[in-house]
Amino acid sequence: MKYWVALIFIASGCNLAKAQDIKPFGAVPTPAQLRWQSLQMIAIVHFGLNTFTHQEWGYGDVPPNIFQPQHFDAMQIVRAAKAAGIRGIILVAKHHDGFCLWPTKTTDYNIAASSWMNGKGDVVRAFADACREAQLAFGVYCSPWDRHSGDYGSYRYVELYRQQWKELATRYGPLFECWFDGANGGTGYYGGARENRVIDRSHYYGWDTTWAMIRQLQPGAVIFSDVGPDVRWVGNENGYAADSTWETFTPESPDANYPAPGHVQTQYLPYGTRMGKYWMPAECDVPLRPGWFYHPQDEGKQKTPEQLWEIYVHSVGRAGVMNLGLAPTPEGLLDTQDVQILQAFGEILRQTFAHNLASTAHLVANNIRAADTRRYGIAHLINKSDSLFWATDDSVSEAVLTLYWRRPQQFNLIQLKEYIRYGQRIDVVIVEIRTPQGWNTVATVHGIGANRLIELPDEVKTNALRIRMKPLSVSNMLPTGMFLNKIGVYRHVSISLPAHS
Prior knowledge:
Elements: H1 2-12, H2 14-18, H3 31-39, E1 41-45, H4 49-53, H5 74-83, E2 88-94, H6 123-134, E3 137-142, H7 155-171, E4 177-179, E5 186-188, E6 195-197, H8 207-217, E7 222-224, E8 232-233, E9 248-249, E10 278-279, E11 282-287, H9 305-315, E12 321-326, H10 336-352, E13 362-365, H11 373-376, E14 390-391, E15 399-418, E16 426-435, E17 438-446, E18 452-471, E19 483-490
Parallel strand pairs: 1-2, 1-12, 2-3, 3-4, 4-7, 8-11, 11-12
Antiparallel strand pairs: 5-6, 9-10, 13-15, 14-19, 15-18, 15-19, 16-17, 16-18
Helix pairs in contact: 1-3, 5-6, 5-10, 7-8, 9-10
């Protein structure tokens, strides 16, 4: 598949061999993280017993036979997601109610207990196959909290939970992401024992053991939770990363305990940690509807294509990955209005990024590393290859890139991509346009990372654009040089849907 070919190319390190004089700065991404970040937009699909009971968090006491999606079509959902520009799907294979969407050997509270498809259904298989056919990456979420299992709270459950992950990691082909959250412990059905069970979130699950197993079975997958280890939660469900977003992060626990999912200082998650200990970019999750599961009363309350665009700018445009929640109906399909919104949003992206004005400009840089234009020249900034980049010498304290056009251009969006294989190095970015009165600053931001979108307050018209960049620096250390992979200059296109009747 295309994304596995890209992973092999990244892992080969062919470009690193060409640039042996460049040393990594701080934490750097793994091949799996690079591949994950290249997806930019993914979706998480919530579908299960809650779909039929109109709940968000099921109690674990609903009969499995309620699950009856008579027109279930995973491909319809996958195609609608792909039309929006989404490149990967995460399926909620088990939510907190404990109901498993695959025929697992670990519990009888699974899809085989429903008469749907004569007990032969496998929703995980259907999504894995649909994603493979549509050339989208596939991942899964399996809730650590299980409100149905009578074993929850004992080590026996931890063993069963790891077995569930083993099944998911060995039956359905390559996974691009394995998803965890911090929702664990509380009231539940627990095999008929209606009670509150509290666990030690820091130690109960033995995360190191569970994650080591996943790494062995799915070496190409990233592991997500609010403390990583590969991808961190952005800290909210609005899809917004902070304006100064760092791809590195040092997790901190609210007390002396070791940080674990659901047990971390969440106020720092939207920002990351400037020069943090780990490369741990943000995943920005947000549901298309008010809730994660389908509810009839939410009809007409979906986010509009323009609202999705704003979320895109504040997630993908802040070096994160946007994770959009999709909720199939009890029929097993996406609602028609949801499909139309996804299509319109995808059209906004296609039209906005269709023409890069930077490709028609004359580019000038104040420095090129070792004066080597072949390896580090500014022409690489408008090349579509991810392995080419413009680089400055280590001694440069300010990199200046200027774009000149023969005729004035109109735009309101600047895109910058840092060459992150050597770490995140660029601190301050100042955007200026030339006016009859001289250079005028129109935006100042902190941090670039894998992808930075700078949305200008107003559309501007000019024949020259200047980008000034300053590197991260550490006390008693010289600047480390700056590496930029792409520059884009665009005009945002707005698309509205007809009124929903």
